[in-house]
Sequence to fold (348 residues):
Amino acid sequence: MSGRLLQYAPADFARVLQGIPVALPGQDVPDEVDNARMFAIASFIYAALDSRSVEWSDYTSASSAYLAATATSHSLESPDAHIPSYIRADERSQNGIAHSRLAAAVKAALPSVADVRARPSSTLPEMGVWSCSESDCGHVIDPWDLTVAECEIIGSYMGVGADSGIVVRADGGAELNRQNPWQVMRCIDCLGWSHFAWHLNAHCIVFWWPDPTRAYKSEPGLWWNEERLCTHQAHRQLREQLEADELADQQNIRKWKCKMALTHAKKGLHAVRFHLTKWRRDAMLARETLVREMFQAGRSIVDTGLALVHRMDVERTNTDRVRLQEERERHKEMMREWTSRRERWSQM
Ligand SMILES: [Zn+2]
Ligand SMILES: [Zn+2]
Ligand SMILES: [Zn+2]
Fold:
């Protein structure tokens, strides 16, 4: 850039830069004070248009005007971004049960049941009797001959009366309402799941399932029955294992959080530096245009230099630049914060 400057600058410019005295128009001999001033201003113009300035150190060396697409995608917005990827992978491999120890406990409680969360009605023979697939259980649910307990479970969701889903026959027996097959299937789900919950409860696992009266919006879920775990001496070993798991999980989550935050900060910093570089390049171009146009219009070195000073004042408070610099500081701060957090956690 500075090379070109010498081409369009007035003939005196190069001489002034070298400290050779020149006479201003209308002067017969060079004036010492004028020359000192011109020398300072010419040096300033030269430096302001110098693309090799040390100030460049904070910018990227990217030569393209476009930021690589991957560098901008530093978002934490994906729907399951808050769930560590190793947990997501775990979940897929264990029938949707995130914790391996919990999955193992379910397997121990119901070794013959492939998936406790699958709808029990899907294994019901056409209009037949549902039987627990746990081999030595033998529990059956007959939709056409409900027990009092089963009626109570359904009643807790559907209430009693005409819309309760239960029809009481003349012989006193209770059955599901055949007129509404959709509801029959829901009731079978509810009763089957409630039976599985009974199995799991003995192993300190709470099992819950979606409301049979509404469209299923979630799958059944399970978790440790913490209260039972704490009060039964027999479960002390399991409890201790779970506590150890919890600690390990905490460490893993922390590691994962650090990784996410540092990656985000690094990518963000790269992106913002890229934009700063581009901003800077445009600003330099505008400076050069200003100087060239003024020199070509016959303006003096001093006038041009003062205009450049004003231009650079405006650059300093430019909102785009200020915003980018703030963003850069934010990402730097994030980097510092998570690096020190990582150090602290690694010593725990
Ligand atoms: Zn059973
Ligand atoms: Zn117990
Ligand atoms: Zn960011």
